[in-house]
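FAQ: What does a ligand-bound record look like?

Like this one, built around zinc ion:
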Amino acid sequence: MKIPARSAAWLLLATCTTALAASPQAASPVAAAEIAFLDYLDAVGGVAFIESGKVDRFEDRNLADWQRLAQERRDVLGKGLAEVSTSKLAADDARAVEAMRKSLEALAADETTAGVREQTCKDAARHDADFGALRAALVSCYVEFGNRLQFEGGVVDRGSALQLLHVIPEPARRKALFDAFVPLWTALNGRNEADSAYRRMIVMAAADASERGSEIDAAARAIGVETGDIERWLVQILEAWRDASPDEMVEPWDYRYLNSAANRQLEAKIPAQALLPANERFYRDLGADLGKLAVVFDLEPRPDKSPLAYTDFLRRGRAVGSQWQRPRARVVGTYPTGGLYSLNELVHESGHAVHVSAIHTRPAYMDWPDTLFVEAFADVPSWSVYEPAWQRRYLGAAVPAATSLRSLFGDVMLDVSWALFELRMLRNPGADPNAVWTDITSRYLRIVPHTEVPWWAMRVQLAGNPGYMVNYGLGAVLTAEMRARTVDAIGAFDAGNPRWYGWLSDRLLKFGSERDTRSLMQDLLGRPLSPDALLRQIERCRVSGLGVGARGQDAPP
Ligand SMILES: [Zn+2]
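The answer part, i.e. the structure of the complex:
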């Protein structure tokens, strides 16, 4: 996932509205505000980098220095924006100012997620917690419990556990690993009582959504359809998957394993130390040299590290004299075990990083576009790792496409299921989440009902950012469209294509927050978005008796 720069409490303190004379260097008050905007975001980036725990100092400043600088720069920016709000602006300047305000609102909203006070998982039990505090407390549960799942006498983090569920051969051990999530699930959803922490939170989320719109409404708006259309597409996709899959019902702890013969057949080829070099080589072959783009990778384990992988701006891009200084990205992730699942995630995060690096626009737009678009684009390169052509070139061995794509789309269908789950929970927040999840997963993924366990609660986003999963579930529709259109235009890119980065930068990436998903996709495709490209990909993993057997046994090598 990508996240906006995490800000601290002092962000909200800046309320100064006094007008200020334009800086003498800037051509206009709007240009001055835009430079202040970049300066401020750079300070926020410095704070977030040090707070992530990777470094104590960045560009000769410690955390307190960056925080002080961010506060000062926020004041300057506040004054600059106050001044332009009183002047009559040309249409393009007015749009630029609006874009800056939107970026700043997103930062501030992110702050309410983080909570003014540091929350612990215990705080989730407090019935006086507000929406922001409760979400922050639930996210802490993922750190406190999710980073320390007890399994076979040792400790495993949640991300690694999900990866292991694809590869552990013995059903009883998979069941034991699945059960290792119980303390986390209990922290989030108690015994599924109507006022469990999650169920209180989703009621607040629905109330918030009715006032301000949900992530799902935002995604619908971003592609110019109704929320009801999204539900229809999600169901259509899940039905296509069901039709392409074996008839047998499977246990939830077996679902990933049975769909991921490819992960196991390639496991020996993807040790942890192979991830980064394969990733770098692939992007270099796509014309996006991660070293030259100066992407910072933070991949070493640390006890209090973020429970999920993310990518953020480290520094915004700007013109320095006549030179363009590219934006810089940093990638945070932890991959102790290697494997296809981790590889896919690393290539996805690096997709965010090259997106950041490609943004080349006026300062007001030096930010992420719609989250839906951002997540969908990052999968354009990451889906390639499931293609035999990619595997042959970067791993030296490949599995058949049907087997490999089943592994990809088995996981994508969980995302689609979570998107549908959140859509339905936000529409009817009093519903029993275990029942909603069981209905979806038994109907479309043919997973044996277990209404007694909230096994839907495997993703941090469900607690920290309710509705966010639509960006993955629906994002798959956009990803399939972007991949198909790119191949039509410049040829295959799964095994590299030096035109890839430049072609996509010009058409999709360089605009930053200036353009919305709908216009980007319309211009790329020359028609409205449709789920057909994704449905065609799902068809490629139809069970044919090869690759994955009815019971998911591996094909002979
Ligand atoms: Zn992402």
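Follow-up question: can I read anything off the structure? Yes, for example: The beta strands are 57-58, 61-62, 149-151, 154-156, 296-298, 310-315, 318-320, 323-325, 328-332.
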